[in-house]
Amino acid sequence: MRDIAGASELTAIVLTGLRKRFAAGGTVALDDVSLEVRAGEIFGIVGRSGAGKSTLIRTVNLLERPDAGSISVLGQDMLALDDAGLRAARRGIGMVFQHFNLHSRRTVAQNVAFPLEVAGLSSAERRARVDEILPLVGLEGKRDAYPAQLSGGQKQRVGIARALASRPGILLCDEATSALDPETTQEILALIRGLRSRLDLTVLLITHEMGVVKAICDRVAVMEAGRIIEQGRVFDVFTRPEQATTRHFVSEVVGHSVPEATLARLPEPGPGEVRQLAQVIFAGPNSTRAVVSEASRDFGIDINIVSGRIDEIAGEPFGVMALAAYGPEEKVRASLAWMRRLGLTVQELPA
Ligand SMILES: Nc1ncnc2c1ncn2[C@@H]1O[C@H](COP(=O)(O)OP(=O)(O)OP(=O)(O)O)[C@@H](O)[C@H]1O
Prior knowledge:
This protein is of the alpha/beta class. The protein has two domains: 11-252, Rossmann fold, CATH 3.40.50; 258-349, ACT domain (Alpha-Beta Plaits), CATH 3.30.70. The chain is 35% helix and 29% strand. The strands form three sheets. The chain has a six-stranded mixed beta sheet with strand order 6-7-8-3-9-10, with helices on both faces. Strands 2-1-4-5 form a four-stranded antiparallel beta sheet, covered by helices on one side. The radius of gyration is 24 Å and the shape is elongated. The structure holds adenosine-5'-triphosphate. Adenosine-5'-triphosphate (ATP) is lined by residues 22, 27, 29, 47, 49-55, 208. Adenosine-5'-triphosphate is lined by residues 22, 27, 29, 47, 49-55, 208. Residues 13-250 form the ABC transporter domain.
């Protein structure tokens, strides 16, 4: 597991040893999950359907109570709170949902004001708060519209405004963009990122899309079968994924497939030789080494560069290259092992 040191008094959410099973003998939804989210960061939890993401994020505001473990949010022990304390704590934790969960018979302004009404704010206070928040989500012209008159992206803007109405320090996003098209997804992610800075928010989000993580998160945890199997800075997880599941998620975004037509044009291996395709991710201190020429010289093999491009995460560049190595099998293997020792991520692809 990667280094998660550096977590300090600036930690906004601390989950420790969380366990949850929905029924005796049933699936373990959370299996000893511990996680720290630092103040001001956007932390993503990614995993396949059923991995336990929803259960986990819902423990933060106790929509789901764990069977064991502890939950601290902004220094408060959530499991020690009485009902009134929990209601107050929840006002400090906004939540955005995949399907927006808007009241269809309430206007935009009324939807946004709803949690304030529940919290007992006067109508003048509610109006002031709605006036303050709608421009932040770009909906100042829509206050009297009904949800049915809005696009998906606009509906989610209402959902975000409602989540922020009680001026929370924490924003939980439960697959907030999964019901949106790719362009609208990018707009909503940019909005969340902007609000994080403007309002000093800490954001915890769950998603099954690594693209969301790449676009917006500072750190990420990968969940599988109720456990966190890997976590770290997004750049590190993308460029040096440690677990097979993580590599799979990363490859969805970084992309490693070699087009059939390109494959068909590659030379066949000579007698006694193999052809091994591999994706190599270059990042870190060895990323500028002449790896391909060094490998072919030192191992006496031939390397064809099939494709290559430079990508970036939060302004940090990394290279992704597909190559075809030709030579005696043990030399090809040794060259790929050498690249791994240099700290490059090498994934063998089917030829
Ligand atoms: N209310 C519930 N009652 C019984 N089992 C549940 C309940 N909620 C979740 N589970 C089970 O717990 C496990 C984790 O589910 P969870 O919804 O947290 O996963 P997820 O990663 O969020 O997946 P998805 O994206 O499909 O929601 C699954 O096996 C699920 O069937």
